[in-house]
Amino acid sequence: MINRIRAYSIAIAGFLLGSAGTALAQGSKVVARYHRYWLPDQATAIAGKVDDMFNLILWITSVVFVLVAVVLVYFLIRYRARPGGKAIFYHGNTRLEIIWTVIPALIVIALGFLSKDLWSQIKQQFPAENDALVIDVRPRQFQWDIRYAGADGKFNTPDDITTINQLHVPAGKNVLIKLTAQDVIHSFFVPEFRVKQDAVPGMVTKTWFNVPKPGHFEIACAELCGLGHYRMRGYLTVDTQADFDAWYSKQQSEKAAQLAPPPVAPAAPTGGSTTDSALIPPKGDTATHGTVTGDSAGAKKTDTATGK
Amino acid sequence: MESTAQVLERPHATEEHHGHAHPQLSFLEKYVFSLDHKVIGIQFMFSSLFFLLVGGWLALLVRWQLGFPGQAIPWYLAGFLVPESIASASVIQPNTYNTLFTMHATFMVFFAIMPMMIGLFGNFLIPLQIGARDMAFPVLNMLSFWLSVPAGLLMLASFFVEGGPASAGWTSYAPLSAVADFTGVGVGQNLWGISLLVLGVSSIMGAINYITTIINMRAPGMTMFRMPLPTWAIFITAILLLLAIPVLSAAIGLLLMDRTLHTSFFIPAGLTVTGNPLAGHTGGGQPLLWQHLFWFFGHPEVYIMILPAMGITSEILAVFARKPIFGYRAMIFSISAIAFLGWIVWGHHMFQSGMNPVLGTTFMISTMVIAVPSAIKVFNWLGTLWGGQIQFTVPMLNALAFVSMFTIGGLSGIFMASTPVDSFIHDTYFIVGHIHYVLFGGSLFAGFAGITFWFPKMFGRMMNPTIGKIHFWLTFIFFNCTFFPMHILGIAGHMRRIFDPNEYPHLAHLQPINTFITVSALLLGFTQLIFIANLFISLRTGKRAGNNPWRSNTLEWTVPSPTGHGNFEVVPTVYHGPYEYSSPMTDEDFLPQDQPVDPERMKLAQGMGHH
């Protein structure tokens, strides 16, 4: 009797384990309808490829897990102790062990080689600089300082266009982001691109993307960077080429007005962000031209409050 | 049985007499500054359980903030105990949330799991299982424990200094950890480093002792390939410790110099602090140097925490399946392979760090390969269960949980090993789920299994099996409810280490999962009190255990429970391997290692059980 109860409870445990595995395996399809609890939208071609790789590994690991769980639970029920029973005396089987060494080895090495090319597309095969919009992103606690080359096409000249937390790019064009952190390590992460790249002080790292359709995305800092890490959020606006050009020339003319000897003080810079109605954050992080944002002012305040 | 015959020809054990005329020991000598490896092991057990509770409490505070952001810490999480440096007005603040997960991980890794896996099981088991009277260096052994105490106190003290404890993550990435202005944490981060330096010395002392003892002090007939698997696993672990800890200590030394002497090992030139140039550092350092050093230690560290658990699981599965372990030598070779490969995979923590992506590919392949010995172990555990007479005791249930949970943790690791997939899930909750399946689902379940299994040997009483089963099932269920959904969070793009996920509109819809995890975590946390209660209740009221309550083969079960100082009246002679269960050479279903076999019967059994 007790044995039977035992067997049933084991069977239930096994069922739970097995169904967890199956749920995982079926997850990608079933949950797709509720995709809010699954992979975010794919905004780039790379994102689709990463998801394919993810799903391949999900299938392989789910099958392995279900097999292991089923065998485990079957053995637990089948070979549970019985009065007067005797276990078999068996030390192992070399041939079997070679089989279950070689098969997993082949699978994981194959996964490694399958991953290799995609990895190289993400991190090694950058678009040529003359075929891409190059943007300098220099994160610091806790904001994204963004810099475009401006009218002369060169960085670190007076006509560079700078924004804070606002990244605008045109759709359908290669974008090459050059990252350098100003203080601690940050990480540039856009979930819809499936790509993450740390920004390290003292060195330049690169990431690239090409978003076919206009849209609004969030840039998240994915590397712990201090007390304001959780709200180090940037906004990425992918515009049509025409909208982007309009935005860019507006930035340029404002910059030019700024640089021109001021007979009359120009109007306070507010441009650039008003079009992002969908993503205007509540606190006004959208200031451009190096104006201190609400966020970083807040960070400073909290900084001093921690008592350094 | 090829080795059995050889040993029968060996001369009988020299019956040296030792330890019989112990002078009466004072209370201090017997229980506090004891030289007895068993007492030291038990001391490590209580200290690790204490820090397990501290670390668990910090985890629940982390979960509270994520499940119920901005709400006051409830009474049952002992909000009144929370220092002002963590929460003001009982509400966890963003600037100190980081200290909670930093100190949670630090306590769990260095002060709970390591002392339990290595301090407790290493000390308690090694001499008993190899037939030695004590460790090679008993005084060093005592010092090893008594250095871990000030290390723990220093770490605890950091909660009460100005600026609070370390908040740069348990990985302490530079430059965040290297300059006080970046976190606002001054003394606390220094104490973190100093505490780990002291603890490192303690670990090295232990490792030297284990290695020496195992190489030199095995009983006659106890060849290396007759050693029980927990001892084998801890032997390999001790070698890893001896080689890995100095690297961590060196890295922390450099970090402390950057912090206090204004060197710039990890600090490049031209840094700013909220827009102003960073004063006092000339620069020229490399932030990635810290990561290389830390993970060169850190990845072997993962195996330091899991290999002993694998050894314990192997032992318990064989005992309660009443069967020889499937592929004893393959188990040892796979542990050794994991230990070797563990040195050449550290770069998989740094795929997105800016490290050369070609190097990333190399580390991906080595990381993929390390899955193989782990797979061998899982299959061999299944093979051990096959054809057994499985007894569902509390240690066995926990060991079986280890097998299934470690399988999940191992498989989820393959996602991260794939560099392009890691590009998405790196630094998300997927990683948090994975690491907890390995360290809680793996190491901690093995810890529960080991403690309930050897408790009778430690204290002469059995742990209450009914309470043990209640604890097991609740833990198993709440564990999965807590950590499995973390994978889903990660897949949805939820970053780790963020104070308030609602700050990101793209994460706000995940709040129900976070709340579910927090409720499960609270239940999981409080379930652990059942284990602690069972331990203390059973100390006084547990059923008396004989020498060998589990009918087990290894040498620790041949001596009285609890075992006196000096362990063995007569040093035993070992005649066969540790897992000869249900052997045709005996009428019982077990065959103690020190029990010789009638040569006639052995001839009959020759060739059986080998294929």
Describe this structure in words.
The complex is a heterodimer of chains A (308) and B (611). Chain A starts with a helix and ends with a helix. Among the domains of chain A are: 38-77 and 95-125; 129-259, Sandwich (Immunoglobulin-like), CATH 2.60.40. Chain A has 308 residues and is of the alpha+beta class. Chain A has helices at residues 2-30, 45-78, 94-123, 241-259, 294-305, and strands spanning 133-140, 143-148, 161-164, 166-170, 175-179, 186-190, 195-199, 205-209, 215-221, 233-239. Mean pLDDT of chain A is 83; it is low at 266-308. Mean pLDDT of chain B is 92; it is low at 1-21. Chain B starts with a helix and ends in a 6-residue tail after the last helix. Chain B has one domain: Cytochrome c oxidase-like, subunit I domain (Cytochrome C Oxidase, Chain A). In chain B, helix 4 (94-130) runs antiparallel to helix 8. In chain B, the strands form 2 sheets. Chain B has a two-stranded antiparallel ribbon with strand order 1-2. Chain B is mainly α.
Please describe the structure with a list of short key phrases separated by commas or semicolons.
heterodimer; A: 308 residues; alpha+beta; five-stranded mixed beta sheet; 10 strands; 19% strand; disordered C terminus; B: 611 residues; mainly alpha; Cytochrome C Oxidase, Chain A; 18 helices; 62% helix
Strand content of chain A: 15-25%
CATH class of chain B: Mainly Alpha
Query: How would the global form of chain A be characterised?
Result: elongated
Number of helices of chain A: 5
Q: Could you give me the name of the CATH homologous superfamily of chain B?
A: Cytochrome c oxidase-like, subunit I domain
Mean pLDDT of chain B: 92
Strand content of chain B: under 5%
Low-confidence stretches of chain A: 266-308
Task: Give average pLDDT of chain A, whole number.
Answer: 83
SSE order of chain A: HHHEEEEEEEEEEHH
- Architecture of chain B, according to CATH? Up-down Bundle
CATH superfamily of the domain at 129-259 in chain A: Cupredoxins -  blue copper proteins
Largest sheet of chain A: 5 strands, mixed
Count of distinct strands of chain A: 10
Spans of at least 5 consecutive residues with low confidence of chain B: 1-21
CATH topology of the domain at 129-259 in chain A: Immunoglobulin-like
Largest sheet, strands/sense/barrel of chain B = 2 strands, antiparallel
